[in-house]
């Protein structure tokens, strides 16, 4: 079950590659998520729940850059 969406005035837009959006659409079909936006918002919120409030370490930043590079977000 997905959490309720926040009111529209509290939303921001994030751009993702079309192929990622299509993959998410396939994954959420019949899942109860109303949209790619709802799924991405839910996943990011869950990811942030597990994060500490401390700044990224150099190792955290290196891993994040590697992951973003592998997903095609950065060169």
Plain-language structure description:
The protein has one domain. 51% of the residues lie in helices and 0% in strands. The chain contains three helices and no strands. It has helices spanning 18-28, 36-49, 58-70. It is globular.
Biggest sheet features: none
Number of helices: 3
Could you estimate the helical fraction of the residues in percent? 40-55%
Overall pLDDT, averaged?
Answer: 82
β-sheet strand percentage: under 5%
Rounded radius of gyration (Å): 14 Å
Query: Given the helix and strand composition, which structural class is it?
Result: mainly alpha
Query: How many structural domains can be distinguished in the coordinates?
Result: 1
Condensed summary:
With 75 residues, this protein is mostly helical. It has helices spanning 18-28, 36-49, 58-70. It has one domain.
Blueprint (SSEs and pairs):
Blueprint: H1 18-28, H2 36-49, H3 58-70
Keyphrases for this structure?
globular; single chain; 75 residues; mainly alpha
């Amino acid at each position: 079950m997905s959490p309720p969406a926040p009111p529209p005035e509290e939303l921001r837009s994030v751009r993702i590659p079309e192929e990622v959006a299509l993959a998410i659409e396939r994954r959420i079909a019949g899942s109860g998520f109303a949209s790619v936006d709802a799924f991405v918002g839910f996943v990011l919120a869950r990811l942030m729940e597990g994060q500490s409030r401390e700044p990224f370490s150099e190792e955290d930043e290196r891993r994040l850059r590697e992951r973003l590079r592998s997903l095609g977000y950065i060169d």
